[in-house]
Amino acid sequence: GLGPLFECSLVDPLDYDLLMQCAGSLGNLAENASNQVQLVRDGAFRPLCRLAFVEHEAIQQDTCRAFCSISANPENQVGVFGPDEMRALFHLAESVEENCGRDAVIALGNLAVITKNQTNLVKLGILGPIVALLDSPFRSCQMYAARVLYRLAAHTDNQPKIVDAGALAGLIRLCRSPDLEVQRFAAMAMCNICTHEDNKPKIVKMHGLPPLLDMLDSESELVRRYAAMTLCNLTNEKANQEHVVKQGGLAPLIRLAGSNEPDCARYAGMCLCNLAANRQNRVPIVKAGGLRPLVEMAKSTRLEVQRASGLSLYNISCAVTNQIAMVRANVLLSLVTLCESPDVDCCRYAIMTLSNLAANHETRNDATRGGGLQAAIMLARNEDLDVRRYASICLCNMANNPTTQVQVVVHGGLPPLMDLATSNDVDSQRHSLMALANLVANESNHQAMVSKGLVKVLMKLSQSPDPDVREYATFNLANLASNPDHLNAIGKAGGIVPLIALAKSNNIHSQCLALAALRRLATFAENRA
């Protein structure tokens, strides 16, 4: 029965009553899922495209209804709608009638889930009518227009083109719509658009931050989530990190990050992570109560959330004034948890943070307790070079305390530090020698260190081509020489030559240390020769 129906749809001159019946029949037939593919195969597009340009409200409504149903079938979304059908939908989307505009834009949204269609639709001119619909008096048209832009903006090439077409002003305005679904799709579209670096400052310049920040307190969980996602993308840019804080974004982000809604908390926490990358924001985040949700994020089962927590805590710990507050917020338990993660990034961020806390004499003791020292020793054996380096720095900082100096050796910290000292990486050699220098400063450790072969390691490193490595290795020899039990062994190993070289240093402290060691070594006749 389709043949006669198609023929009647193409009559000329126009018979509006007949065309109304044809369009209504096609709209009804297309509502049945089993007909949607068959209609296309039998040639329904030609009459539908003709009907789309008949300027008659009822005819266009039913034509839109048919296109909407046909495009909803996944089999019709790939390689089926060509330029003629797409342009017909563009024309229908310009209708001032709500049902026609809505169904046309729904059909375009159905096609826009396919990557190839996303670029083709933009090339053919979809953006003009869709951007215009953002200002439609009908909320349904606003919502589905925003949805189309969200889907088109999933393609990177389209993101700047959407902004150039003037969509930002409409989307920002819709973020304040009284309709929560309109808000949601507007936020979703902006979320995709602002993944493009060039678009981020434009959104802020057009006053897009205030509505997004207000949406963080929306009664809709989905609106809150997509607002947080959009802000997360925006705050990858340094200038925006400052704008968000200046415009009052910390309080709602911290509230959302501490909520019981996993996805909302996840993106709000990741946004706080971005904000903490900016030095100016680190103290304000702590003062506003941001530590609690960041500490909780470390317990998440999602790896990206754990990473965001670790990086945030590291950035915050770079401000010395935050470190006491971090200890009071029980951040150390979270750091130890992250140190035990199989993920290299989590381990790296956690040990970097622990190292910062251990560098502060007011938080050093806390950093070593509750598993902090054991975590640092464990990570000194990690497969990742950077993790090992930071672990040695952390142990160096912790070993500024006499009690901890002994604990590092007792808990097995000496072997991994010596392994780092003998590695081929000069930075690792430097850091491990600095840690060993602190351990050697405590005579209680000398016997264990000498018995592990430290003198031999130090002698080898005292001949390194790197001046820092030579100097640090000799510092260690000089400190070992404070113990009479090892003077003979140091002399026999050849320790006098590097100590004489150290005595020629331009640094007065190095000279004094070397001369004191040589004086002690000279108490043995074998060494005086």
Which keywords apply here?
mainly alpha, 38 helices, 72% helix
Secondary structure topology:
Blueprint lengths: L1 H8 L6 H15 L2 H9 L3 H8 L4 H15 L11 H11 L4 H14 L3 H10 L2 H7 L5 H14 L5 H7 L2 H8 L5 H14 L6 H6 L3 H7 L5 H14 L3 H9 L3 H8 L4 H15 L2 H9 L3 H7 L5 H15 L5 H6 L2 H9 L4 H16 L4 H5 L3 H8 L5 H14 L3 H9 L3 H8 L4 H15 L5 H6 L2 H8 L5 H14 L6 H7 L2 H8 L4 H14 L3 H4 L1
Helix pairs in contact: 1-2, 2-5, 4-5, 4-6, 5-7, 6-7, 7-10, 9-10, 10-13, 12-13, 13-16, 15-16, 16-19, 18-19, 19-22, 21-22, 22-25, 24-25, 24-27, 25-28, 27-28, 28-31, 30-31, 31-34, 33-34, 34-37, 36-37
Account of the 3D structure:
By secondary structure, the protein is an all-alpha fold. The protein has 38 helices and no strands. It starts with a helix and ends with a helix.
The coarse overall form would be elongated
Give average pLDDT, whole number. Answer: 93
Poorly predicted sequence stretches spanning 5 or more consecutive residues: none
Helical content stands at over 70%
Rg over CA atoms: 35 Å
Describe, in short, the structure shown.
The protein is mainly α. The chain has helices at 2-9, 16-30, 33-41, 45-52, 57-71, 83-93, 98-111, 115-124, 127-133, 139-152, 158-164, 167-174, 180-193, 200-205, 209-215, 221-234, 238-246, 250-257, 262-276, 279-287, 291-297, 303-317, 323-328, 331-339, 344-359, 364-368, 372-379, 385-398, 402-410, 414-421, 426-440, 446-451, 454-461, 467-480, 487-493, 496-503, 508-521, 525-528. The longest helix has 16 residues, at 344-359.
